[in-house]
From TrEMBL:
This is Alpha-ketoglutarate-dependent dioxygenase AlkB. The lineage of its organism: Bacteria, Pseudomonadati, Bacteroidota, Sphingobacteriia, Sphingobacteriales. Residues 102-199 form the Fe2OG dioxygenase domain. One of its GO terms (molecular function) is dioxygenase activity. It comes from Pedobacter flavus. Keywords: Dioxygenase, Oxidoreductase.
Amino acid sequence: MLSHHPTTLHNLLPYDGTVLYYGRIMAKKIADYYFNQLLANIEWKNDEAKMFGKHYITKRKVAWYGLEPFEYTYSKITKSALPYTQELIEISELIYRLTNTTYNACLLNLYHNGSESMAWHSDAEKMLKKNGAIASISLGAERKFSFKHKETKEVKSILLEHGSLLIMQDETQSHWLHRLPPTTKIETERINLTFRTIIKEKSS
Ligand SMILES: O=C(O)CCC(=O)C(=O)O
Ligand SMILES: [Fe+2]
């Protein structure tokens, strides 16, 4: 079920990148189903980070899955991807049907409530395909999501609905930061899936 025809999608960003919000791409019942399945079946771990020689553990939980056991380094911690679960296979097929784009890995985040957030960053790690698209699926609590231009500091925000799809593509990661701001208004969980394309390192 596609709520918006692709030709009616408009770019949320005024320049230097493309962010397309597809809105809710599945019925509420289906979104509820995936939320519950992912909550139960994903190997959620507390995110760890090393900064200035200190070791931090976040309340937010994360998981890393892929079509191959890709190693992914974020917050200076390297993890090997687990094989896609049935739900990840189905959701990636749904994204393919809507956008005609494929991905080979998925980073998952579990925010227990509005106090858990993600700080300003861009997803431009070396192992990610340069200017490759990132497909973001949101399930559970509706949260605000913001973009900030690295030079002009212009901010654009959007509400990410239950069962929705957002695509970040083109130069977005080079010119814009994004974040999931904390909020005191949300007391329930949100799951986010970002499908990405990992490039294999050339063997020398
Ligand atoms: O939770 C979100 O919507 C965004 C997560 C994100 O930006 C990331 O995992 O890189
Ligand atoms: Fe991100």
